[in-house]
Amino acid sequence: MADALRSMEGKIYAITGAGGGIGRATAVRAAQLGAAGLALCDVNVDALEGTKKILAEFSAVHVLLHTVDIKAENEVDDWIDAVVGEFGRLDGAANVVGINRRTRQQNTGNIETPDWNATLDVNLNGTMYCMRKQLKHLTRPGGSIVNISSGAGLRGIPGMPIYCTTKWGIRGLTKAAAAEFGPEGIRVNALMPGPIHSGENFQQAIDSGLINPETLSATTAMKRLGTIEEIGKVVAFLLSDDASYISGGKDFLPAQYYGSGRPTNPYSRITLNLECIR
C-alpha cells in the first residue's frame, strides 16, 4: 500500500466543478497527497482562480485551469485533449458537477420539459461526455474515475424526480464502465453523499429559509451535515492507489441513514432554481 500521506504522488488528475464545493475540496486533498498535476475546470473562471490561490501553498503541484461547460461535448473533448497535451497522461478524474434545476415544485406528473432537459444535460450527459473522453486517455493499468451521484440515486424522493433520475443514471453508467474497463486495470466508482454543506450558495439557501439544516441533519446517521472537506477526502481516496481493489461493485454512502417508511423531501420548500448542489 502506498504511503497514506503520498498516495497520489506524481499523478495527474482532472476535476470538474473545481471552482468550489466538493470539486475544490478534492483538488486540495489531491495536492496534500502529492499530486503532480491538477487539471481543473468549471464554468466560473473567477471561482477557478480562487481555487488556484488556495493551491498556491503546494508549490510542487502544476495547476491547469480551463473554463468548461460540461454539457458541451466539444468543450469537454478540448479540455481533456489539452490536459493530455500539457501533462502527457491522465491518471484519474473526478466528475463532480451537478445541478438540481426546478422552476417550481414538481412531481413526475407535472415535470417541466425544459427543467428535465437542462438537468439531464449537465448531470447525466455531462458526466457521460467526461467519462467517454477520459477513458480514451486514462493510464492502463491504474487509471481511476470517481463520479458524484447522490442519496437521491438510491431512493425515490418526492418532488425531485428529475434529479433522482440523473443520479440513478450516474450509478448505472458507473457500474457499466467499471465492468467494461476493469480488465484494462481502470477503476470506476460512484460516491453518493448525503446532505452536505456545499459552500456559500448552500449557506445562502439556509439563510433565506429555503433549506432547513436541522431537517437535513435528521436524515443522516451522525445527525449533522457533512462538509465538503470530508467528501473530498473520500473522493481522493477512491482516486488514489490506496483504493486499488475498489471498483464499481459497491456504493459509497458517507454517513447516510435510511429509516423505514415513505421517504420525504428535505428540500421541499425549494421552488426556484437551486444549482448549488454538487
Automatic annotation (TrEMBL):
The UniProt record lists the keyword NADP: yes
Q: Extract the SUPFAM superfamilies matched here.
A: NAD(P)-binding Rossmann-fold domains
Which Pfam families does the record match to this protein?
adh_short_C2
> InterPro entries this protein is in?
NAD(P)-bd_dom_sf (IPR036291), Sc_DH/Rdtase_CS (IPR020904), SDR_fam (IPR002347)
Show the GO MF annotations. oxidoreductase activity, acting on the CH-OH group of donors, NAD or NADP as acceptor; quinone binding
Under PROSITE patterns, the record lists: ADH_SHORT
Q: Which GO terms fall under biological process for this protein? A: fatty acid biosynthetic process
Keyword annotations for this protein, in alphabetical order, are: NADP
Q: Does the keyword Protease apply?
A: no
Recorded family membership = Belongs to the short-chain dehydrogenases/reductases (SDR) family.
Question: Could you identify this protein by its name?
Answer: Short-chain dehydrogenase/reductase SDR
- Protein's organism: Macrophomina phaseolina (strain MS6)
Mind giving the lineage of the organism this protein is from?
Eukaryota, Fungi, Dikarya, Ascomycota, Pezizomycotina
